[in-house]
Amino acid sequence: QVQLVESGGGLVEPGGSLRLSCAASGVTFRSSPMSWVRKRRGSELEWVSIIGLSSSDTYRDSVKGLFTISRDNAKSTIYLQMDDLESEDTAVYYCVKGWDFAPRGLGTQVTVSS
């Protein structure tokens, strides 16, 4: 049974930074690409970033150069370092396996506001 637990969200001012974590279990983690997706209020779920088995990474255009995804296979955990945050980044962030939007955990709320 796949279990994904996201953490690290919070309230941050514009221009600030946060580091999200996602601990995975029930997944063959070392052989699974992993993604971060997010849901902004009033919008559909949207893909943010994916990290491959060799830690190759890809990002949606709006976060390129601002967000960095990483993974620690020993801990079955992925991370998302988010810098220079904007109000448009306010959302609930989830991690998922590969390109699938489900299953996912409860998510972690990120609020960017002054």
Strand content: over 45%
Rounded to the nearest angstrom, the radius of gyration is 13 Å
Residue-averaged pLDDT, rounded?
A: 95
> Which bin fits the share of residues in helices?
under 10%
How many strands, what sense, and barrel or not for the largest sheet? Answer: 6 strands, mixed
Number of helices: 0
Note poorly predicted spans: none
Q: Separation of termini?
A: 40 Å
Quick one: how many beta strands? 10
Structural class: mainly beta
> In which order are the strands of the major sheet placed?
2-10-9-4-5-6
| H-E string | EEEEEEEEEE
Bulk shape = globular
Short description:
Helices cover 0% and strands 49% of the residues. By secondary structure, it is mainly beta. Strands 2-10-9-4-5-6 form a six-stranded mixed beta sheet, with no helix packed on it. A four-stranded antiparallel beta sheet has the order 1-3-8-7, with no helix packed on it.
Structure, explained:
By secondary structure, the protein is an all-beta fold. Helix content is 0%, strand content 49%. It has strands at 3-7, 10-12, 18-25, 34-39, 45-51, 57-59, 67-72, 77-82, 91-97, 108-112. The strands form two sheets. Strands 2-10-9-4-5-6 form a six-stranded mixed β-sheet, with no helix packed on it. It has a four-stranded antiparallel β-sheet with strand order 1-3-8-7, with no helix packed on it.
